[in-house]
Structures are given as structure tokens and as C-alpha cells.
Amino acid sequence: RQNLINQLLQEKEAQQQLMHQLSQEKEAQQQMIRHLSQEKENALYQVSVLQNENMGLRSTMTDSKLTQQNEIILLRSKLANYETIQNENGQLHAKLANHDDILHENAQLH
């Protein structure tokens, strides 16, 4: 009977030790979960930062493209103005030549 009591006490002690070990393992797992949750939060934050940087780069690229398009429009306008001035200059040369012809004819008439 005493052997049975001793055996039961030993089993109870072994179960308590096992419960203590399981409790420690559970705490270690909870710490790992907290650590992984923190890593997940950090990763999500990094993704957010990268997304913001990406949007900033897209905006910069769009601004740069618009600036280039505006410069092209301005250059085309300058080119059109230059061509208009050249045409007007050609017309003035023609009028001047015509005027010179009239003066020459007038001089001959005199």
C-alpha cells in the first residue's frame, strides 16, 4: 500500500513537472508570437514607406513629363513664330524689291 502511495506521489510530481515544462513552452511560444507580430508590423510599415516613395516617384515622373511636354509646346510655338517672322520678312523683301523696281521705273520715266 505504501509503494502504491509512493508511486502515485511520484506520478503526481512527474505530472507537475510536465505541466511546468508545458507552461514554459507555452510562454516561449507566446513570446515568439509577439516577436513575429512585431516583425509583421515592421514589415507592413516598410511596405507603407515603399508605397509612399513609389507614389512620390510616380508624381515626380509625371511632373517631369508635363514639364517636358510644356517645353515642347513652347518650342513649337517659338518655331511657329520664327516661321511667321521669316514669311513676313520674305514679304517685306518682295515689297522692297517691288518698291525698288517702281523707283527704277520712275527714274527711267523722268
Walk me through what this model shows.
With 110 residues, the protein is mainly alpha-helical. It contains 1 helix and no strands. The chain has one helix at 2-109. The longest helix is centred in the middle third of the chain and has 108 residues, at 2-109. 0% of the residues are buried.
Topology:
Blueprint: H1 2-109
SS field, number of helical segments: 1
Number of strands: 0
Rounded mean pLDDT is 93
State the share of residues found in helices, binned by percent: over 70%
Q: Gyration radius, to the nearest Å? A: 47 Å
Element order: H for helix, E for strand:
H
Span of the ends, CA to CA: 161 Å
Shape designation:
rod-shaped
Q: Spans of 5+ residues with little confidence (pLDDT < 50)? A: none
Structural class, please? mainly alpha
Give the biggest sheet: none
Strand-residue fraction? under 5%
Provide a brief overview of the structure.
It is built from one helix and no strands. It is an all-alpha fold and 110 residues long.
Task: Name the descriptors.
single chain; 110 residues; mainly alpha; 1 helix; 98% helix; rod-shaped
